Backbone:
């Protein structure tokens, strides 16, 4: 008569071939990623436009390279260990059946069974129970690893579909063109889509300035976090305050005197922001850092900008994020 493990657990075609399968998958993944990376960084001649490899882009590619390989080899090790535990469980079950059969035969013949035999049976039964529990834990771990991998792939796909912050990862190309107001405003608004060549050019120029580059990175971070809450700057319809009020704010005036500067009234978005701030320290810190960087930039910008340029600044995606988060922080009374 077969034991429970032998009845429900068939021999897998992958048993004994875990390392071979993991090696093949790893090689295929490395080749595919190497080909994509060569095209992405412009190493294939005319196939792709050459571009500088930014530090963050290199880190991203390293993560994309290492994490799937780690999951493959971790899964291979877990599956291999699972097969080993199943084999040991089958062997112990066979020993238990043999001992029980021997004990039954001795009882029928009138021969008393030694106590040591009973102890051995109990020990083997406990061992079988422990191995069965280990198998269940291994299966749970494998399921968790697969769920983590699926979640990471979904998050990567979601990030790739957000055009606003993704553009900031670009590295500025060397250029002799001076940074003017039009380029600065275009950079603070981020490229509209992947075909917005002027937007990407303005970003590269803006990132050459240390202060502006810090603001752009802070804006990228907070726009990503707001997008996670379903809040997008293009969906907001601000009422742009007069340039005079913006100049007063830049000079340090706060409260109701500059209440018109916070020209975005979005109760649903404000509620989501307040809820996220209460539960997420990273969101709070990122929001405060962005507000500080924008405030520093605004002081410098208003010194030489015209009234029309100040209002255009307020209507950029970065400006809208400032009005929304500033009102959430109580900066406008």
Residues:
């Amino acid at each position: 008569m077969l034991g429970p493990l032998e009845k429900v657990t068939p021999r897998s075609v992958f048993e004994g071939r875990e390392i071979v399968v993991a090696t093949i998958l790893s090689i295929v993944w490395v080749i595919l990623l190497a080909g994509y990376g060569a095209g992405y960084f412009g190493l294939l001649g005319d196939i792709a436009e050459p571009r500088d490899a930014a530090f963050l882009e290199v880190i991203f590619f390293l993560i994309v390279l290492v994490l799937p390989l780690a999951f493959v080899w971790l899964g291979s090790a877990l599956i291999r260990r699972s097969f080993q535990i199943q084999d040991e469980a089958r062997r112990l079950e066979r020993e238990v059946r043999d001992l029980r059969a021997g004990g039954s035969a001795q009882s029928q013949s009138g021969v008393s069974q030694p106590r040591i035999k009973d102890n051995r049976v109990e020990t083997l039964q406990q061992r079988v129970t422990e191995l069965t529990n280990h198998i269940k834990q291994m299966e749970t771990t494998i399921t968790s690893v697969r769920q983590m991998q699926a979640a990471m792939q979904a998050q990567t796909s979601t990030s790739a579909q957000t055009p606003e912050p993704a553009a900031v990862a670009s590295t500025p190309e060397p250029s002799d063109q001076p940074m003017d107001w039009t380029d600065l405003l275009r950079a603070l608004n981020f490229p509209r889509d992947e075909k917005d060549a002027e937007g990407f050019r303005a970003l590269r120029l803006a990132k050459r300035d240390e202060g502006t580059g810090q603001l752009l990175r802070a804006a990228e971070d907070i726009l990503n976090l707001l997008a996670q809450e379903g809040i997008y700057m293009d969906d907001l319809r601000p009422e742009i305050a007069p340039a005079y009020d913006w100049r007063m704010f830049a000079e340090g005036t706060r409260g109701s005197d500059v209440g018109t500067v916070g020209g975005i009234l979005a109760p649903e978005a404000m509620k989501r922001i307040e809820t996220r701030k209460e539960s997420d320290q990273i969101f709070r810190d990122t929001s405060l850092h962005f507000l500080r960087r924008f405030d520093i930039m605004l002081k410098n910008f208003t010194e030489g900008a015209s009234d029309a340029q100040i209002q255009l600044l307020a209507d950029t995606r970065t400006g809208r994020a400032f009005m929304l988060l500033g009102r959430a922080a109580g900066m406008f009374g």
User: Anything to note?
Assistant: The mean pLDDT is 75. DSSP finds 13 helices and no strands in the chain.
